[in-house]
Amino acid sequence: MREILYGFYGTMIYLPLSGLSRKWRRFSMRINNKEGGFLQQINLPGISWKQCTNKKIIEIREHDEVNGNIRISELGVINAIAADCEDGTNIFEIGTFDGRTSLNIAFSSPSNCSIYTLDLPAKTDTQFSLAPGEEHMVEKEKSGARLEKYRESDSSIVSKIHNLFGDSASFDYSPYYKSCSLIFVDGSHAYEYALSDTYAAMKMVKKGGVIIWHDYGIWEGVTRALEEIEEKEKIGLKNIRGTSLVYWKKE
Ligand SMILES: C[S@@+](CC[C@H](N)C(=O)[O-])C[C@H]1O[C@@H](n2cnc3c(N)ncnc32)[C@H](O)[C@@H]1O
After folding, report:
1. Is pTM, for the whole model, over 0.90?
2. Ligand 1: residues within 6 Å at CB?
3. CATH number of 2-249
4. Are 149 and 173 in contact (CB under 8 A)?
5. Between these two residues, 100 and 31, which has the higher pLDDT value?
6. How far does residue 188's CA lie from ligand 1's centre (Å)?
7. Using one digit for the tens of pLDDT, what is the confidence trace for 59-90?
């Protein structure tokens, strides 16, 4: 019951309010001719989250957010989209952090889905430079720490999650090509990573599957990469209104 209440709060209350607040902040930045920091003007067309899912009743676990997690509204939308995934397919997340989203996806998706979540081990050399300000998300004690609490009580859910380690720019994604019904791109926010993670996701998504990116309009590298891809490829990327999520479905 608590999970459903948090789902309602995240998508029906928090989402519209935080959307309005960002709209207002972007408007005031524009009239004051200010740019930069953790908010950019955005140019991708918007889509309502309700157009991205058939799910009406959404559950959220681990509602408390720490610096590095996505917003409760975004977690609700991703859980709804995960519930629509085809049973037995793969789901891939780039950027595990404390495992809050992979855990939620595991609870929300059909029971025979497998969730693969890739994280950069601390103190690893990377192919590209990471974005300034994201080191704390990499240099953590344990990747996916939030899963531990559920390992015994919900073992069938936690066993759907497979932790993978490596640099997303050099990782071998070939075992997952064309197999994923959902991919969540939330690794490094540097421009080069946003580009290379996107191209990896495009190879993994199956027909009818969905790719979701986080931090559009928040981290400059992500915003620039996604707008450039759309400008060049015209594939129909859309910003889920009221969130920093970008949505794309492979037809
Ligand atoms: C914003 S956090 C992810 C948050 C998580 N998806 C959630 O919803 O709670 C970014 C994660 O990406 C990882 N990361 C950063 N650079 C990476 C890279 N080059 N390859 C793989 N993972 C990376 C970080 O270690 C961190 O765990």
Report:
1. yes
2. 68-70, 93, 95-98, 100-101, 118-120, 126, 130, 137-138, 167-169, 186-188, 193
3. 3.40.50.150
4. no
5. 100
6. 6
7. 999 999 999 999 999 999 999 999 999 999 99
